[in-house]
Amino acid sequence: MPDLSIIIVNYKTPQLILNCLASIYAYTEGITFEILVVDNQSGDNSQAIIQTVYPAIRWFQMGYNSGFARANNFGIRQAQAPLLLLLNSDTLLVDNALASAVRVLQNQPDVAAVSAVQLKADRQLRPNLYTTFGQMRRAFYILPGGEAAERLLNRLMPDPHFADPNQVEWLSGAFLMTRQSVIDKAGMMDECFFMYGEDVEWGYRLGKQGRLLLLRDVQFIHLEYGSSEDNQQHVVTHINRFKSQVQVSQLLWVRKQYGMSAYLVLIFHYILMIPVVFVWKLAVNIRDRQLLFGGLENQRAFAKQVGVFLQFFWKTVFNRPGFYKV
């Protein structure tokens, strides 16, 4: 039996996976592992490309684009090791990170799951990553910048304080290692989620089984958005800071973890912000002596995005089982 089962979900990213696997085999020492690739109906020759180079890889076909949670859950069911690692296809190891993480879980039974610090492709620290539920929830609100708004949100949604500087409330699914025994108690990922938010919701349940640690001395490269040109092209603005799929999933998480009222507050906030952002832009145009209705693309995009959220309103407000895919 291997020490670790590594589960990688593939959607049209054979070269990324080849690079990822090369880094795993180049750097990993002192542990035994198996690698499972779960394919989300890529419709290409990913399997042949990867297994020609790495024939020992265990390959599974989902038969449809099942998203992140369902594909990983399928891999978890096939895994043979007591420890499991969910690893994105667009990741690269830079040292013996897997053995370091395995040792923590083997030596500290009170730890339920671990992750590692994310680096950009240039090996610089990836900034502004959330580690608490409060950070994530505060980012959903579109308020004027400034200390007053920040203080208000921090007071309403405070962060916890842990004695261990490595302890966090949730861990990124890009690199998340846990025990099969923990999953047996916490349950698998919620399969209502298509992509995004599933690791946040899962972190809440994993955290009930023990501490979650972000290992500051363990690092990996996360390229991000390897299979999505749409995400690569997304321009982040103050009012359009999330893609529709991201926010639909995060709203579902808020509903599941914090209840109907917390979800309704966010939805009403977005609806009320539609006239606000339009009036604000019109006022700016008048001040700057521009065309009154010019430059409203960002505001129209926001209104369209809220419309997408509302398509899932009744399902989400009543927390109905389903597949929340935009």
From TrEMBL:
Q: Which GO terms describe its molecular function?
A: transferase activity
Q: Which residues form the Glycosyltransferase 2-like domain?
A: 5-131
Protein's UniProt keywords contain Lipid metabolism? no
Q: Which residues form a coiled coil?
A: none
A Pfam family hit = Glycos_transf_2
Q: Which InterPro entries match?
A: Glyco_trans_2-like, Nucleotide-diphossugar_trans
Residues annotated as transmembrane: 260-280
Name of the protein this chain belongs to: Family 2 glycosyl transferase
